[in-house]
């Protein structure tokens, strides 16, 4: 494969080639690296803006042309800083969406495991056997209630006689 076709097809890492894309952990790591790099660039631009502002003040009215040039550079740096802010917001949104997707995937996977476990537990249970068992329990509870009623009614022996 030529270098040009490899470039257009995408290099990718060896770990992600076999699976058709990077894992969520790889993507999150790269997004965090990009956020870090942009944050450093943000700090650099902020210091440059401060320097240009200080240079403009230093030149003041004496070096009007130099002061204007410093203000123009400051404005350019502020524009770059604004673009980086927007890019950082987009990356943060994408990172959070990826984290949520990964969490949802894990939850779904665990729910699947739970469903399999419930199937395994229920495979030895037969609905007809359960119905029969519940009827037996109900009948035995009725018998116990009748016995209890009979015992409690017999406590008043002298009150009622069956002729």
Automatic annotation (TrEMBL):
<dbReference type="GO" id="GO:0032511">
    <property type="term" value="P:late endosome to vacuole transport via multivesicular body sorting pathway"/>
</dbReference>
<feature type="region of interest" description="Disordered">
    <location>
        <begin position="1"/>
        <end position="25"/>
    </location>
</feature>
<dbReference type="Pfam" id="PF03357">
    <property type="entry name" value="Snf7"/>
</dbReference>
<keyword id="KW-0967">Endosome</keyword>
<dbReference type="GO" id="GO:0009898">
    <property type="term" value="C:cytoplasmic side of plasma membrane"/>
</dbReference>
<feature type="compositionally biased region" description="Gly residues">
    <location>
        <begin position="9"/>
        <end position="21"/>
    </location>
</feature>
<keyword id="KW-0175">Coiled coil</keyword>
<keyword id="KW-0653">Protein transport</keyword>
<keyword id="KW-0472">Membrane</keyword>
<dbReference type="GO" id="GO:0005829">
    <property type="term" value="C:cytosol"/>
</dbReference>
<dbReference type="GO" id="GO:0005771">
    <property type="term" value="C:multivesicular body"/>
</dbReference>
<dbReference type="GO" id="GO:0006900">
    <property type="term" value="P:vesicle budding from membrane"/>
</dbReference>
<protein>
    <submittedName>
        <fullName>CHM4C protein</fullName>
    </submittedName>
</protein>
<dbReference type="InterPro" id="IPR005024">
    <property type="entry name" value="Snf7_fam"/>
</dbReference>
<keyword id="KW-0963">Cytoplasm</keyword>
<dbReference type="GO" id="GO:0031902">
    <property type="term" value="C:late endosome membrane"/>
</dbReference>
<dbReference type="GO" id="GO:0000815">
    <property type="term" value="C:ESCRT III complex"/>
</dbReference>
<comment type="similarity">
    <text>Belongs to the SNF7 family.</text>
</comment>
<dbReference type="GO" id="GO:0015031">
    <property type="term" value="P:protein transport"/>
</dbReference>
<keyword id="KW-0813">Transport</keyword>
